[in-house]
Amino acid sequence: MLEKLRKEVHAANLMLPQHGLVIFTWGNVSAIDRNANLVVIKPSGVDYADTRPENMVVVDLKGQTVEGDLKPSSDTLTHLELYRSFPNIGAVAHTHSRCATIFAQNQKPIPPYGTTHADYFHGPVPCLRPLTDREVASDYELNTGKVIARDHPDYEGIPGCLVASHGPFTWGRSALEAAHNAAVLEEIAAMALFCPNAPLVSKALLDKHYSRKHGPNASYGQKTPPK
After folding, report:
1. 133 in a structural domain
2. Catalytic (active site) residue 113
3. Is the C-alpha dihedral spanning 172, 175, 178, 181 positive or negative?
C-alpha cells in the first residue's frame, strides 16, 4: 500500500540526519495521500539507519494504523491535525535541530534579517504560545497541532513554526520539500543567532526574494529540467 509514498517519506526522513537536523531518533517526516486520506510516517523510536520504506507506518486521519507492524511516531497526532487544518500541504517534518530549538526554548520568533530567510519564509518564523498545563496533561500531541493550526499567521507563506519550549515543525507540498524547509529553517536560525541586533530586511527585499521563488510570477529555476 502506498509504496511510492513510503519511499518518498523514507528518503525524506534520511535527509534529517544527513543535514545534521537530528541526532539519535529526534525527528520525523510524514506525507499524506489526499485521495486516500492516508498518512505515511516514520515509526516511533527507530534509528534512521534501521528504517526501510516498507516499515514506514500508514495511518488514517484518526491515527489508526492501517498498515505496518511498528508503532507510528509519537508526534503522529500533531501531524494529523496539521493535515486536517492546512489543506494545501502534502507533508510535515519535525526536528529538534539545535539553532531553531534555541529560539523555541527562548520562546522567540526567528526574525527575517536577510534575503536567505526571505527566499523561503515571507516574514518572521513564529514561535507559538506555550501549551497550558491542561493541554499538556491531556491530548498533548493533538493539542500541539491545534495550537499551530489556530495561531499560525500564514501557513502557506511561512511553511514552518516553532513550538514554544519544544522545537520546529515545517511542511511542504512533498516529503522532500518539508525536509528541505527544515534544513533551511535551521540555517536561517543559525544566521539569526549571530546578528541579534541587525536591522530587519526591508519589506521590498522580503517581497522581492519571496516572489522570485513562489507564486504565479516566480522566476527562479528552470521551466524544464536540463538534459
Report:
1. yes
2. no
3. negative
